Amino acid sequence: MRACAIGNQVILLDLQRGRYFGVVADPQCGMSQHIDGWPGPEGVAASALSRRAAELTTRLSAHGVLTPPGPVRDCRPHLDEAASTLDAYAAGAPRRPRLQGAAGFIASASLAWTWLQVCSLESIARRITAGRPQPSAAVRAEMCRPLGDAVCEFESLRPLVFTTRDNCLFDSLALLHFLGRGGIHARWVVGVRIQPFGAHSWLQIGDMVLNDLHENVRRFRPILVV
Amino acid sequence: MFRYLALAWQHDDTPAGHAAAEMSGVLRHRPPWQPALCRRGLEVFTRGSAPGVNQALALQNHGGVVLGKLFRRAPLGEAVPDQLTLHRSSEAADLKSSAARLVSDYWGRYVAILDDGRAAVLRDPSGALPCFVMRHQGVSIVFSWLEDALSLLPPTAVPEVDVHALAAHLAFGELGGASTPLTGITQVLPGQLLFLDERRPPCLLWDAARHARKANPMAVEEASTALAQTVRACTQAWAACHQSLLLRLSGGLDSSILAACLGSRVANDRVAARVTCVNYHSPGADSDERRYARLAARAAGLELLERERHSRFDIRGILGVARTPAPSHYVGRLGAGRMDAELAASCNAKAMFTGGGGDQVFYEFPQWWPLADYLRDHGCGAGLPAAAMQAARLGRVSVWRALRLAMTDRLRKRRVLDAAHKRLSLITEAVRGQAEHADRYVHPALLAALDLPIGKLTQTQHLMYPVAYYDPFEREAAPELVNPLLSQPLVELCLGLPSYLLTAGGRPRGLARRAFAAELPAEITRRRSKGGMEEHITALFWHNLGFAKEMLLDGKLVRWGLLDRRLVERALSSGSTRHTSRIGELHVYLGVEAWARLWSNPSAPP
User: What's the ipTM?
Assistant: First the structure.
């Protein structure tokens, strides 16, 4: 389960079932002090649960959202605020796709498709983190050209295979694998927004968004960062 | 603030003559109104004239008067003298041919009052200068600013809200046809010649759809050159009218192109004006494009001022809006409008140039549509694979989906403004029902343009709505708004270019990027992102939530059955996670509510 706070709402993502739900919970109601992992204001002195919060806690427990206390894991998403968009064309005109690149693209897209068919989001997240080095904290100068070239190659092949509009999850996972094959490791991010509710997925290295515009993704609050 | 009033009546109609005399008497004794034309059955007045900027140009041979600003077509952008001859003395000329000559040989921002014994009014194809008509006691009153016309009328003659038209306005946004949401007030359409005696039907001498059909085949390089030359000529023609002007430089492609055309690095002697760029920003990456604005200003050699928008601005200012024939959008005006006025005063600038209209003219529609246009023009030829890839890249779809959609586009039955109201979440069924009557409210040329391929149709439709000229909040204090990218020659050129050419390289505004690549920083021509104000307007709305509740929950829109109170209440509450309305939509309703409160209740709600 992952959670993030937006205004007076807490949005929860059930990774096993791939479902979202929202709870109206005043940030000052005390739940973050009584529930490990519940988003809320930091540095606030512990206070008693309000009556509303107590009722909410009972209902969430009944639905299996809350579990008995155990080892504390910090599942809060740690991510730099998206502040820039990868300009894949900065180094010049894109190269023609290579045969090797095309093969890698097919393999990456196939793997992403398979994962989405048979795996839960939780399983996908575990598979991504297993055996991978930590993603780069930021886009270093020496990364720019290979990163731009790789994304250009991906973008030039993508129209031959799949639609990315309204298909952000698949697009992000396919690109994640494609970049990983070239030794470039990005963070996979899922974000949510409210009014109206929406969810979106993208890749990010440091504060740079790789497969969307940073102005777009800033409308979403990260709820899952892998 | 240049404005005009024209009074026309049948000269043998005695009561109308008395009414006209009374109204013109008021104007003659109310400075700074000045008579521009005085004839039996026709009088025209103006105020706010400035030589070279907006004035009354007399038509030779008693043809009438042109109000506003006029340029020649050839050479493009050349100013015209104070007296204008439309026809050689050997030519037989009637009113309609005079109007047609104005449209074909000239461009600018104008309304022409023409007279052949009976009066007619022509609005220029750009529609930059507003033009409305109402009738009172047999007198046709043609005006640009409604407050001026209302000042001539007794209180009993003030129009009421036409709630059906207002419902259509909520459903469709701005009404592109002659109807307005006020009873008895109609709009003269851009490019339309309207005979004021009402016995002759109006005729459309120019419409966007006609130019969209012209299909101007050009190679990419030729089109790129033509585009750059036309943009430059139009922009510099407008700039030559002023000693000092402001340029709203967002840092986006369109305003950066204007900066390049006006910049001190451009070798030209046409732009003598002092140009000062201004960038408005607010916290949040989508509302803060200062980095790009600085790049553009530096490249053009122009001064740049940076001003922060106030996200804690009090929206109550919308209650002070002037009475206009239709509701205005206030987001972006409030706060920024005041700053525009203050900056203009400090720089002694009378005009604010903006890149408005660039999206429509240069084609900022990231969809697969140009492939449908290509199929219509070329069929399944050798160029189809490249066109398909380009469209797929543009629309972020697979090339197979793009082909399927493009091929089935012809079979799809189009309805006017089909899906506009479906995205609105707080309107009632009465408003949605207006979709059945869209024909009454849309531009007549749009109804005849539905057979255009989807890419060109969308651009055409977006170019049928003139941009508001006056600021209904700052009024006289606001600098004059100039949108060079909506100049008639440029609009005609871009309507005639295929959408797949305008999106060359599979990028929105691809041809414009190419045309100005040598003059703009590479970061701007390559830039995919587009600044917005969502973060700003969201903060603005929640800061003014109390006011929004006061206005909307029991306002006129709810009482007239146009907004669903239950849904509005939910949208404004903090106790639900199921909000479906967008902040922008809520701002629109606030603006409409503020406008509706200016008028007495209608006699028959829907």
Answer: 0.86
